[in-house]
Amino acid sequence: MVKQIVVILFTAAILFAANFREASPVHPGDFPVEKVPQFVVLGADDCSEAEAILWIVDFLAKQKNPDGSPALMNFYVNGRYAQDNYSGAADTSIKKVWQAWKKAYDKGHEIGNHTYSHWYNSNFDEPREDPRLLSFERWNAEIVSNDLTLTANLGIPRSKIYGFRTPFLEYNRATFEATTRRGFLYDCSIEEGMQPDQNGKNRYWPYQITDGAEIDSLQAEWSSGENDWGYKAIGKFPYSRMWEIPVYAYIVPHDSLSEKYGFKKGLRSRIIKNTPWFDSASGNLTGFDYNMFSPKAWEGAAMKANECLATLKNTFDTHYSGNRVPMTVGFHPDYYMKSRDKNYKSAGNYAQRRKIIEDFILYVLKNPDVRIITGHSLISWMRDPVPLGDTPVLDERGEPTRITVNRRPSRGQRGGEVEQSAETVTEGVTAPEEKAKTEEKAKTTTGGAVKK
User: Fold this and answer.
1) Which of 427, 428, 450 is nearest to 438 (CA)?
2) Could you tell me the fold of the domain covering 33-375?
3) By three-state DSSP, how is residue 410 classified?
4) Domain chopping of the chain, boundaries
5) Residue 430 confidence (pLDDT)
6) What is the pLDDT of residues 376-399, one digit of tens each?
7) Which residue from 304, 268, 311 is spatially nearest to 288, judged by alpha carbons?
């Protein structure tokens, strides 16, 4: 009996390890990088303005990926905007906001959890709560409240709220304890790509947080002494298989690329005057619109519209010509309203700011290898990568097409080889459910043993 228990535990441990993707610049799949799709993951935060949500949803509805699949994105929303304790201008009423979210969901876009309150009180008065100091209980309450709001207002099953992003990209260990306990498929909060040995062509592909995050530990080291901003490393999560789709840094183009991308030389030197922490040598800048065109008073780069577009294009081209790590695009639809013109005037009026996003999307879709997809679809593809070829990478629903027989595990992935047969994409599952499915598959394909 004891021997049987040991064998079962040992087998379970092997299966658990086999499903682990560590941080690695090596793409998933045993095929050349030229066969790897260049994924672009658009992620919108907050989403309190119905008009702006409908703008991007309607624009994407007119676009298609080169293989004919829909161009889909993620909306990380705060539940307060769909509740009676928030009231905005007449065109952003509560009803219109959640109707806009529902339209996005019905069109195939993904709705993610961004906490209920965004750490502000009902009147958006300062001071807000500091996410780096909050307990597991506080994080859990915010996540659960947002889940309940989304399921009640939109009818989205909790199991289909796959992703999470923390407000301000600020977090602590309790954040990941709560998201792991909740069973999210992935998080999208950790900034990635600012390591000294990375240049945009060799960034880490999405990984699971089991061993923590290298960049997270580096940021904790950088946050010390006079530069201490209260940051602490989250550490390891040995029993978690939650994925991290990082917020990849944007790469502000070097002066040598000014003619190619159409901007005035001296861009990096101008930015560092506004944003003290900007790395002018590498050009790395946090991958959000706020960091590109918010004013100097807020330590933003205060970029012009053409400079923002040049930065997005340069980041994409760098990824595409390198290891084809996905490009994440972080933006706030609320910033593309006329009412925000006074805040972000360096990048022009709201129509000009919208054109930055639209022109970038059109720019990337000119490339045959590009696929604009949701976070859920990206993780599904990473679990069972499909090369570019005669078979579409994505089906008509925007989900990865799986036609894989006896595929070997992805490079950069630990564990022995487990045979796989042709199948369709399954929904995101929590670690225990995933483990059970893997064990059952191993029994049916290997007679109960794991092939090595």
Assistant:
1) 450
2) TIM Barrel (3.20.20)
3) coil
4) 1-20+414-452, 33-375
5) 41
6) 999 999 999 989 986 666 666 666
7) 311
